[in-house]
Amino acid sequence: MLTATLLTLSLAVTGTAAPALSEPHKKDIAMRLVSSAENSSLDWKAQYGYIEDIKDERGYTAGIIGFCSGTGDMLELVELYTKRKPGNVLAKYLPALRKVNGTDSHAGLDPTFTRDWKAAAKDPVFQRAQNDERDRVYFDPAVSRAEKDGLRALGQFVYYDAMVMHGPGGDKLSFGGIRKAALAKARTPAQGGDEVAYLNAFLDARKAAMKAEEAHEDTTRVDTMQRVFLRNGNLDLEPPLKWKVYGDSYTIKS
Question: pTM of the full predicted structure?
Fold first, then answer.
């Protein structure tokens, strides 16, 4: 029996392999899917200037992927932006971002940080920095791990969305812990397991993690989005796609 890796190579040679999530159009679909859940909009490029405190004990949540002032990824983003464009409008907040990291505090950020974030969001340099940090911290690691597990585009998206919400850590409420819980119930395709069975186990573990956090206890992005694609057997995440998040309906036609 071919391993998942050999099967992927075989399909690539015959020209029948479906695009991975890293293929530009598939990646854009992934961004729109996440945006529907994070921002109630398919226009993910309109979210560079998004910023609010959603009361999840992570401080401010902002940008295209929900960079948080309390979890370190917002700090790293502003550091990258400042490296590329010294003296930018957000650079002056770096000392405050370092102090509030690990907390939900706004100390040193209010009352002007949200205004300046929205101003910076119009700068193409800041937009590129958001894209690059999204890929470095979330998208690329999620897709890489999913490919090693033998998962196709839907599974790669399932991993990515989980990493966006829960972070890439190893504790039980982070991506690593969720994957560990899934592996206790099912084998990955790379281990010879059934892809649908494994993804169901992963989504079960994801829901448990979501319900453990008050700010994330609404599991519709799993129930009426990802589980719908899985039930339909759309493992390659091929349009047209129809789903709901928080009761709102969305469609990607192509």
Answer: 0.91
Q: Which are the contacts of 43, defined by CB distance < 8 A and separation ≥ 6?
A: 32, 35
Known catalytic residues are: 38, 56
CA–CA distance, 188 with 183 (Å, rounded to integer): 7
CA distances from 181 to 9, 147, 200, 204, 206 (A): 29, 19, 12, 9, 9
Which distant-in-sequence residues (6+ apart) come within 8 Å of 242 by Cβ? 228, 249, 250, 251
Q: Measure the N-to-C terminal CA separation of the chain; round to a whole number of Å.
A: 34
Contacts of 27 (CB under 8 A, 6+ apart): 21, 139
189-225, pLDDT tens digit by residue? 999 999 999 999 999 999 999 999 888 889 999 999 9
- What backbone torsions phi and psi does residue 187 show, to the nearest 5 degrees? -90, 145
